[in-house]
Amino acid sequence: KAGVTQTPRYLIKTRGQQVTLSCSPISGHRSVSWYQQTPGQGLQFLFEYFSETQRNKGNFPGRFSGRQFSNSRSEMNVSTLELGDSALYLCASSLGQARNYGYTFGSGTRLTVV
Amino acid sequence: KNEVEQSPQNLTAQEGEFITINCSYSVGISALHWLQQHPGGGIVSLFMLSSGKKKHGRLIATINIQEKHSSLHITASHPRDSAVYICAVHSNTGNQFYFGTGTSLTVIP
Description:
The structure holds 2 protein chains of 2 kinds.
Chain A: E1 5-7, E2 10-13, E3 19-24, E4 31-38, E5 42-50, E6 53-57, E7 64-68, E8 74-78, E9 87-94, E10 104-105, E11 109-113
Chain B: E1 4-7, E2 10-14, E3 19-25, E4 29-37, E5 43-49, E6 52-56, E7 59-64, E8 69-74, E9 83-91, E10 97-99, E11 103-108
Parallel strand pairs in B: 2-11
Antiparallel strand pairs in B: 1-3, 3-8, 4-5, 4-9, 6-7, 7-8, 9-10, 9-11
């Protein structure tokens, strides 16, 4: 079966712009969670969506937002980009709420802000 | 203060050696995960544990809830095991997800 698909794989944006990243979960998975990975901070949890509702949120500013559609696909948006937003953004999908099930991760979107 | 601490940060082993990576955490948890990340970024979920021990091939993961400690063991290590291993926990208060900084493993043929 198809894995978790993230698009685009690579992205270069200018400071101040906004960006939208997409994540298509494994068919049948209803939970999608998002993570940011940087060399300095490592992996950090952004948020988790389950059945179109945001269930959990990490400690990120309001510039980071997301949503989940009825087909479980999810998008993440970052507005007013800063240089420090350059990172690998990963999403993972799960059958149910992520804390109760194992995850499958996508390959990530590498965002560079210049 | 990090909620999840891993040791060692870096580890080099000869092929065939038995490897142990440790993870200690300071929060109450509902589950602990071991993740593997290869160069290029792809992450694979190896184990999810809430108690006891799990085994998959040459990999074994254990958790001691009372001591807030987990270990990942690799028996008969192989160069393809070279990767970063990350411990992550789901807290049972506030429903947060915390990550260790990872252990970079290199297995030399």
